[in-house]
Amino acid sequence: MPEFKNALKDIQRELPDKVKEAAQQIARDWIAAAKNNAPSQARKDAQALNIGTDSAGATIVNDSPTFFGFEFGGQARPQTMHFPPHLGQRGYWFYPAGRANADRFQKVWDAAIDDATKSWDHQE
After folding, report:
1. How many domains does the chain contain in total?
2. I want to staple 52 with a disulfide (CB 3.0 to 4.6 A). Which of 59, 71, 92, 115 is the partner?
C-alpha cells in the first residue's frame, strides 16, 4: 500500500504537466495539418491560427473575421456570397484536418498518460 500511495503522488504531480504538453503538441500538429489543408482563399485565415494556453493546456485560436465563413461556408445572404456553400458543421479544411489526424492525436494523449503513470507500472 505505501508503494501505491507514493505512485499516486507521483502521478498527481506528473499528470497535469504531461497533459498540458500533449495538448500543446496536438494543437501544433492540428494547426500544421489545417494550414496544409486550407484552400488558397483561406490561406490568410490558416496563417492566423495560433496556440493559446489555458489551465487545461492549449486552445487553438483564430481572430480572423473570415475564418468561420471559409471553414463552414456561407451564401445564405448577399454578404456571404464570397464564401463556399454552407456545409453545416462538417467544415471545409480546419475540422476535416482534425478528423483526419484523430488517431495520431489519440496516440499523443495515450503516450502522455502512459508517461505520467509510469511510476505505477506494477507487474507481478
Report:
1. 1
2. 59
Give me the DSSP letters along 61-96: E---TTHHHHHH-B-SSGGGTTSPBP-TTS-SSHHH
CA 98, 100, 103, 108 torsion-angle sign: negative
Those residues with Cβ within 8 angstroms of residue 51's Cβ, 6 or more apart along the chain or in another chain: 24, 27, 28, 31, 58, 59, 60, 61
Q: Would you mind telling me the total number of residues written for the chain in this entry?
A: 124
User: What's the number of CA atoms in the CB half-sphere (13 Å) around residue 35?
Assistant: 13
Reply yes or no on whether the pLDDT at 31 is more than 60.
yes
Instruction: Classify residue 39: in a domain, yes or no.
Output: yes
Rounded to whole angstroms, how far apart are CA atoms 66 and 30?
Answer: 19
Report the amino acid identity of residue 97: A
* 59 found inside a domain: yes
pLDDT, tens only, 5-23: 877 888 888 888 888 999 9
The answer to whether 85 and 75 have CB atoms below 8 angstroms apart is: yes
